[in-house]
């Protein structure tokens, strides 16, 4: 905990699921947490207060629409006013529901200019815009770590997941390029690729129960993944224990992709 205490992580989309679990993991280890929310300010403020009360760290929530990548500059400017440094950036937020119509479905139903484009913006565009702003701050403190969340849906076929799966493959490739170019700034960049995780985003899938049953069947440990399963790996990649790991994708899937 000593090496991490007093540092600051920025997490996109941390009011539920994987993002919230990441915020808690970092806070448990003395890391200050700046995180974003999409629309529910009251819920986000409650989470921030709970993190501060439980772990004695500083936490604050900021609004962000990840479909508008121009918002990242003012977001980080606001974070600069409240935190004295940025050490880690976790690109986690994703979209589901109406914005992915035309991007979530069978291949012949995909609509490149609508849902598919939105998924790219929320996955790759948000990672690029957020990482660029975070890297400027990390360079000032001697380096840091960036982690993007990915999905094993880019390795194996998941019904209706072509739009998401291909963009997860794209963000993993972008992370490798970023790792090479940001390394000279002392910044490591990696991805954590999760198997199906029991979150609200997964529950939004029309075939959620089928996916859940198949995941448990395929898993070598006979269960669904939890947000905490991914949060541990995200946190590890930001610690000194991972100081020679960069440009990699860590697969956290309970063994579901090799069975």
UniProtKB/TrEMBL annotation:
Spell out the molecular function terms from Gene Ontology: cholate 7-alpha-dehydrogenase (NAD+) activity
Name listed for the protein in its UniProt record: 7-alpha-hydroxysteroid dehydrogenase
Q: Does the keyword Oxidoreductase apply?
A: yes
Q: Which UniProt keywords apply?
A: Oxidoreductase
Q: What protein family is recorded?
A: Belongs to the short-chain dehydrogenases/reductases (SDR) family.
Q: Where is the signal peptide?
A: none
Species:
Sulfurovum lithotrophicum
Transmembrane parts of this sequence: none
Keyword match Oxidoreductase:
yes
Please indicate which superkingdom the organism of origin belongs to. Bacteria
List its EC numbers: 1.1.1.159
